[in-house]
Design brief:
This protein has 167 residues and is of the alpha+beta class. 20% of the residues lie in helices and 31% in strands. A six-stranded mixed sheet has the order 3-4-5-6-7-8. A two-stranded antiparallel sheet has the order 1-2. Strand 6 and strand 7 form a beta hairpin. The protein is globular.
Length: 167
Amino acid sequence: MFDRQRLELIEGELIDKMGQKRPHIDALTLLASWLFQVFGARFVNLGAPIDVAPEDNPTNEPQPDLFVLRPDYSAFRSGTPQPQDLRLVVEVADTTLAFDRTVKAALYARAGIVEYWILDIPGRRLLVHREPRAGQYRSIVAYGEQESVAPLSAPDSPFRVADAFPE
């Protein structure tokens, strides 16, 4: 068996996505399972690259933990999803919270990605970013374990934050 190194290109540097610890894996699995139920397996991608704003593309090819597509995955057999193809982008943050809240949030906001979630494992909360304008999200709301939030593209399907944290 070989050890597969996951790299992503951010601001012209190759970033090692490092091995995932059990809390990250568990939270990612639970959130992905919920997204599959809400949107269907043909619309949810795990750890695949996306394109960002044209001015950022030459030096950036992020690989979010999860994202939800507008058309199903068959539309991207020979290309990378563009920002307008994305309903929701999700990062699961165990040790990368500061990076995900600053560098990645700015990158996704500049691309006009309409909704960006960060599942903050140590804080046991979900940070929901919406309304991208001028390279930043105008709305950032933190939801605690006792709260729920629905994606903009599935307003009748609330996600209970506690469901991402197995006890």
